[in-house]
Design a protein that fits this description.
Layout (H helix, E strand, L loop, with lengths): L8 H10 L3 H11 L17 E2 L6 E2 L1 E6 L10 E6 L5 E5 L10 E7 L2 E6 L11 E6 L5 E6 L8 E6 L15 E7 L10 E8 L2 E7 L14 E7 L5 E6 L14 E7 L4 E8 H5 L13 E3 L5 E5 L17 E6 L4 E7 L14 E2 L5 E4 L11 E5 L4 E6 L8 E6 L13
Antiparallel strand pairs: 1-2, 3-4, 3-26, 4-5, 6-7, 7-8, 8-9, 10-11, 11-12, 12-13, 14-15, 15-16, 16-17, 18-19, 19-20, 20-21, 22-23, 23-24, 24-25
Amino acid sequence: MNSDLLFHSRTRHWLRRFAHARTFAIAAAMAFGTLAAAPAAMADDATSRDTGNGDSRRTEYIYVGDNGDPSDSTDDAIKRVNLADGTVSVFSRPDSPAAFLGINGLIFNHGELLAVNQNNSLPGGGNGSVFRLNGGSGAFTDYLIEPLNAPYAPQGIVFGGGNRDWRHPWQPDHYYIANILKSGETCEKVDEGDVFEYGEWGGRPIRVLNHGNKPALFNANFYPRGVVFGPDGMLYVSARGCPAVPSTDPRTLLAYILRFDPQTHALDAVIVTNETVNAQHLGYSLHRPEGLVFDDQGYLWVTSFIDGTAAANPNDRNNVDRIIKIDVRSRKVIDSIPLWKAGKDRASAQALIFGPGGKLYIPISGNTPDTAGELRRCDTRTKQCEAFVKVGKGLVAPWFAIFKNSDPATLRYVPH
């Protein structure tokens, strides 16, 4: 295939400008430590700010996929939180051609808000979809990916290309979506998931990424949950153990952060696993990772859950849900932010996103009524967090969140 077909004309324009940004790109890659030689959900920062309704002052919002009341299938919505005062309002709740049935990924791109929708709560199950929503009004405009061509259980979405001077030349203008499992809920190899790659305008998938090309790197069944591009231009994927087992099963402790090469479309490296983190003797580990995002220093932050197996020590005060900080260069965990303290109300998170001032925003989901529905804002240096949106103040079951200024590839917040 002609490689030019893999790139939209806009991208080729920016690639011509790549030579002018080469010094910057090399410096960024060297700072990151990698100048490449070649290139079913389980409950457990675009280019401009918004303008308030009739208000001349510029108001910024964080957009949150709220999976709502589990007993009410019409309660799912994308909500937005005013960063000035924390007030919550509904931004999008389409009723045509279909309602949200599990919002599991959000990015802004081309002035649109793209929302990953899981439909497997439908009678008999059903493939997911990706909605195209008007970035200003939230109105449904079209499918980016219709159910016929979508993964069964899509979870997470990023866009590899775009008009960025510093983007890597081997990143095509393609979307990447994790599919946690193919159909049904078994632990058989045939039912494991994939990472799908789609063209810039959606439609049928171009391919699924090859996670079996290097068996020595990764032998487990593949259940991917989250995707993000790193500053090195590579695609990072979080994966867990089989989701079709009870929380007491040891397989729920499995965790993998994997790196894929978008040029070869294949697994490139295993960054960390629950076993390699255990070997660090930190007192905690990495379990069932999902949401992941890079900070401005090139460190990867990822959600992690408790050890809920029967073998867990009930007196282990380190056994709490937390956000893990990973140095992907050394392939080590270097820090974490606990989401609760032993003896207090549990708090768990499926996703996270960086916002203005380098603050980390963490939607709290889970089943604990005293914490579920919070939107926490954390200082990653002090590890101090506040409930920016408190329980009962407009969010019910918040998962994925995004800013209009979040880069659609790295999810990094891009200041004005």
